[in-house]
Amino acid sequence: xxxxxxxxxxxxxxxxxxxxxxxxxxxxxxxxxxxxxxxxxxxxxxxxxxxxxxxxxxxxxxxxxxxxxxxxxxxxxxxxxxxxxxxxxxxxxxxxxxxxxxxxxxxxxxxxxxxxxxxxxxxxxxxxxxx
Amino acid sequence: xxxxxxxxxxxxxxxxxxxxxxxxxxxxxxxxxxxxxxxxxxxxxxxxxxxxxxxxxxxxxxxxxxxxxxxxxxxxxxxxxxxxxxxxxxxxxxxxxxxxxxxxxxxxxxxxxxxxxxxxxxxxxxxxxxx
DNA sequence: TCTTACATTTACGTAAACGTAAACTTATAT
DNA sequence: ATATAAGTTTACGTTTACGTAAATGTAAGA
Lengths: 131, 131
Description:
Two copies of one chain form a homodimer. Chain A has five helices and two strands. By secondary structure, the first copy, chain A, is mostly helical. Chain A has a two-stranded antiparallel ribbon. The radius of gyration of chain A is 21 Å and the shape is flat. The interface of A and B includes residues 83, 91 and 105 of A. Chain B binds a DNA duplex through α2.
């Protein structure tokens, strides 16, 4: 179906920039890295719901410390149609690798939070004693 | 002057490199950034237990996605003697900031692990069906 | 003493993830 | 029709966290 005057116009790069707190440069950079593939209305980029969903995944990946290359791979794992997966064992293996990284990270987070608790308690105790 | 086996009272940069899987360059870089302050035997660096402890903290900080500047701050928060903290409220505030980042990260990890579970289940199901 | 092995400083190089500026095109408002 | 705003490509610049090489130093064994 072609574009008509009644079609939902989608989102401009400005919309995403404002919604996600990113710069246009960053969003285009993600496209350069193969993380996004917006349509074009003429020369301008038009983003849809799937792009917004991908952006949320991208930003979470970043917060989790993954590189854009790794994020691209996870997106490919996610959007691969199960019937077209060339090597399912390798596919599952990669998923396992990411899970291992995340479980290790989860443990690190736990330890760090405990560490902060100790740190805070120590400081607070001395503060009350001094004040 | 005989050098006995048990005489060396510390670790060389080579020891740390091997123990932590880092390069000497990296360890010196951490010192340049104020994360380590080894003693010197002549011109050579001698690391002690406290340095090894700091290195473990540094590496965890890295895995958690903190910059070396942030890690340096957390180390300063940690090694500050409670009696000498200039502004305990600011001190506690910074600790709270780090805790907020870590709790957010913990949530992200949870979501990402659930996501991987879904992803894996989908792939495995299709695999069994196809095989 | 000479060699060998590891250490140090100095300094330029690099990859990732954008920032920023320049020069243009396109769309909308007046 | 023209001004203004937003979008585009191109390309060099910047920051972080080291890599890598060169020149030099030093301590211990052959």
